[in-house]
Amino acid sequence: MMRADAQRNRDRILSAAAEVVAELGAEAPMETIARRANVGVGTLYRRFPDRAALLDALAREHAECLLDAFGQGPRGWKTLRGWIEWSVEHGRGALAIALADVPVDDLPEFVRLRERIAAELDAQVAAAHAEGGLRAEVSADDLSQVLKAYSCHPMTLPSHLLPLLLDGMAPPTP
Hints:
Layout: H1 4-24, H2 30-37, H3 41-47, H4 51-70, H5 77-87, H6 90-100, H7 108-131, H8 140-152, H9 161-169
Helix pairs in contact: 1-2, 1-6, 4-6, 4-7, 5-7, 6-8
């Protein structure tokens, strides 16, 4: 069990790291992360002995957050659409792209979490198809491509385009 002040520092470091990595990429200076977290560099390195440990914790926290967001409603198109919109918000999308560049060979827990996200996405798509809320030809891979596009280009794609794309994925009303 971690002391309360140590847990607060860890949480501040991870929050700051998410912001800084989203802004500057996975190679962001550790000093910048410490400064943004309002902790000393020594505190950062006590919690995370190197960049790989910090990125591992950050990637796992991000993946767990994405999984938790799926659990906020019943399976189906409405939940899936809300999750997509939530996932591509600027900070989350930019963080996802920065983390996509991190080699995952040494991050087995993150790999397992990504597999769980993919499985949940498949289940949500199947439920959306079953309820008739999603066109039959739309796949989980199609939705992944939309997520990637909005994560890679959060500032260049017009904000009104995502709702239009998602609206087009719903079957036409008779």
